[in-house]
Amino acid sequence: HYLDTGELPERPTADEVCNTILRHAQMELELKGEYTAVREMRKHIAWYTAGYPRSAALRRKVNEIEDFETLKETVQQIFTVIQSGCAGKCASDSGGNMPIRQNGLLI
Hints:
single chain, two-stranded antiparallel ribbon, 5 helices, 107 residues, mainly alpha, 2 strands
């Protein structure tokens, strides 16, 4: 797109990123098994979420996950918060360094 028009494409929506992460994680699981897939997805999730509000807190949370189901649930919860506009509490509201709890999830 950029080479043809000189315009950057629109950033994917949070829903698109969430679905891509979950699809990627499922493929990793099928290919490499749960142990390796979960650990490899930790770094991929960090890349996918760079630039989102509270992404550093998300990385800390994801790096603690040991199983696929928890990874899936955490990604879905985080993107629910992102899609809701962080319920009015994004990084800029707290100077970017205070954790925020949303629906029992530390973001």
